[in-house]
């Protein structure tokens, strides 16, 4: 290169094309399936607590309504405890975007108190249905009279039975069934 010419910082096109081809040859081939799995595992969702709590409260509503309905029909409404647990976890997961250990604890706490709320509301519905046409009892009057009705031993006994059955089924709702599989030592053929 003569001394009066300045060196150009621009690389000729042919050199740039060769450098790109060399870089592609040296780069390892990426499998698209591996890339998607890497993105899925790398993406960890953070569960929002407030939307999760709202979701858990909304998720237990079907269990509460079914508990009240079955109670009005004269059945023990314990199976609804299982529905409340599943509904709370489902609702938390849907509105929070994910569920973590903290979310499971919050959903469980909400679901634990819902059978009590269901029994309270069930008594209020019974009072309303009984006295609405006779005395003109309002919904608020029915809700306010529930503590007075809890002093009756027969009503209290029925509530306790319902709650015990509900909490037993509630506990069953947390059991995860995983079938046991017999593992064969590697390299051996199972005998028939």
Structural summary, described in words:
α3 runs antiparallel to α5 (79-96) and α6 runs antiparallel to α8 (153-172). By secondary structure, the protein is an all-alpha fold. The N and C termini lie far apart (84 Å). It contains 8 helices and no strands. It has a domain at 49-172.
Defining traits:
8 helices; 192 residues; mainly alpha; 69% helix
Biggest sheet features: none
- What's the overall average pLDDT, rounded? 76
Order of helices and strands: HHHHHHHH
As residue ranges, the low-confidence spans are 39-44
**Helicity level:** 55-70%
Q: What is the terminal separation in angstroms?
A: 84 Å
Radius of gyration: 32 Å
Number of DSSP strands? 0
Structural class based on helices, strands and sheet pairing = mainly alpha
* Percentage beta strand: under 5%
Number of helices: 8
Shape: elongated
Secondary structure: elements and pairs:
Elements: H1 13-26, H2 32-42, H3 49-59, H4 61-72, H5 79-96, H6 101-135, H7 139-149, H8 153-172
Helix pairs in contact: 3-5, 3-6, 4-5, 4-6, 5-6, 5-8, 6-7, 6-8
